[in-house]
Design a protein that fits this description.
Elements: H1 6-11, E1 21-22, H2 33-45, H3 55-74, E2 82-85, H4 88-98, E3 106-110, H5 119-128, E4 131-135, H6 146-149, E5 157-163, H7 175-184, E6 188-192, H8 204-207, E7 211-215, E8 225-229, H9 250-254, H10 261-264, H11 267-275, H12 283-302, E9 307-310, E10 323-328, H13 333-343, E11 346-347, E12 349-351, H14 356-362, E13 370-374, H15 381-394
Parallel strand pairs: 1-11, 3-4, 3-5, 5-6, 6-7
Antiparallel strand pairs: 2-8, 7-8, 9-10, 10-13, 12-13
Helix pairs in contact: 3-11, 4-5, 12-15, 13-15
Bound molecules: pyridoxal-5'-phosphate (PLP).
Pyridoxal-5'-phosphate binds near residues 89 and 167.
């Protein structure tokens, strides 16, 4: 934590200079000033159709290529192993339309998910006549492990999908251990990293998943998303592009008409912020700071007998990221949020956050779901101590 200069970090995000405490970061994060400037610059000077050989065209081509390169390098992949699309939902839908399996093959889907990592595969199962098995880790564990996955696997299993971190529970799953178990039966493993990527370094080779996805608009950038597919997994991806275009890399196979140019070319700024030298906080420092933030909130929530924290109640940053969801006996999640808004500038939310199967079927919650406070590294300890004071007034 010694290297982490919160004042300096916050100064890099123009939106933070307002009378609003941003605690819906799992919904979408604030954007780095360098990214904003770069998008303005791109539109102002180099917004031309890619592929041209004239002067400005060449600059645009280079910026776009550099964006792809930086994004790939950031996750320890090659540019041929990624595609940048409009959202993770869209990227998964595109992948689901391109994968090939045989009738009667089995796929395993988790119920601890944002629907983005379910619906595309149900659609795929419908199209290819695959059988679906559901993977659940009931309360109180709520943790996807090799032990609860193994009984669902057999030689018939061809595809398994789960989240790295649930956008409700915040618990970090051991993707490497799960990947090893999935690969023992020769199946492909697809991981939704959307709620993980804002908090920790993504290293797809270390994780060992065949497909991995996240959205840059939650990682301090523009509204664009990354899908990784290892070179070996791409054998199963049928190219969806025009017949006369190349089919070598993932963006050839699943990149429809190019990604949003201005967003792609801005990605090196996020990479240099998160992975680069000063003033970029290294992820170790981010994790330590986030650990301090979640400890303040969780110590308060854990101290109350009328509060249920959904997911791990541990304050350890190796166990969870600071996405904290809770319900309170005697007060609805909606009412908590509305009452907090009446007396403060704290912006957090209630609901199922598209993890409806988790909220309904696993947690057994009413329609209003959880109250969710989702912090990132640019939040301050002072903000979270202030939130605790607000909650003291608002809770029964
Ligand atoms: C865990 C998780 N997965 C997937 C998504 C969907 O991402 P996108 O909006 O890029 O489709 C979200 C969005 O909130 C999410 O929280």
């Amino acid at each position: 934590m010694t290297e982490f200069d919160i004042k300096r970090v916050r100064a890099l995000f123009p939106a933070l200079d307002q009378d609003q405490v941003f605690l819906d970061n799992a919904g979408g994060s604030q954007v780095l000033g360098t990214v904003i400037d770069s998008v303005t610059d791109y539109f102002s000077k180099t917004n031309v159709q890619l592929g041209a050989s004239y002067h400005i065209g060449q600059i645009s081509n280079t910026k776009y290529t550099e964006g792809y390169k930086a994004a790939a390098q950031y996750i320890n992949a090659s540019p041929d192993e990624i595609v940048l699309g409009s959202s993770t939902t869209q990227n998964f839908m595109n992948l689901a339309g391109a994968l090939r399996f045989c009738e009667g093959d089995e796929i395993v889907l988790s119920k601890m998910e944002h629907e983005t990592n379910v619906k595309p595969w149900l659609h795929m199962a419908d199209r290819l006549k695959l059988n679906v098995k559901w993977w659940v880790s009931p309360k109180p564990e709520l943790k996807l492990t090799p032990a609860n996955l193994k009984p669902l696997l057999s030689e018939k299993t061809k595809f398994v999908a789960c989240t790295h971190v649930s956008n409700i529970l915040g618990t970090i799953h051991d993707i490497r251990a799960l990947a090893d178990v999935v690969h023992e039966v020769g199946a492909l493993f697809c991981v939704d990293g959307v709620s993980y990527a804002p908090h920790r370094q993504v290293d797809v080779k270390a994780f060992g998943a065949d497909f991995y996805a996240f959205s840059w608009y939650k990682v301090y950038g523009p509204h664009i998303a990354l899908l990784y597919a290892s070179t070996s997994a791409q054998v199963h991806v049928k190219p969806q592009n025009h017949y006369f275009n190349p089919t070598n890399g993932l963006s050839d196979k699943l990149g429809f008409a190019g990604s949003s140019y201005e967003a792609v070319q801005a990605l090196p700024h996020i990479v240099s912020y998160l992975g680069g030298p000063n003033p970029a906080p290294a992820f170790e420092a981010i994790a330590a700071h986030e650990g301090a933030l979640q400890k303040i909130l969780l110590d308060f929530l854990n101290s109350r007998s009328d509060v249920t924290v959904h997911g791990s109640s541990s304050v350890d940053e190796r166990v969870r990221v600071p996405t904290v969801s809770f319900t309170v006996k005697g007060k609805s999640s909606k009412q908590i949020v509305e009452d907090a808004e009446k007396i403060s500038n704290y912006g957090f939310r209630f609901g199922h956050f598209y993890s409806k199967r988790l909220c309904d079927e696993v947690l057994g919650l009413p329609e209003e779901g959880v109250a969710r406070v989702s912090m990132v590294h640019y939040n301050t300890e002072q903000e979270i101590r202030g939130l605790v004071e607000v909650l003291k007034k608002v809770l029964p």
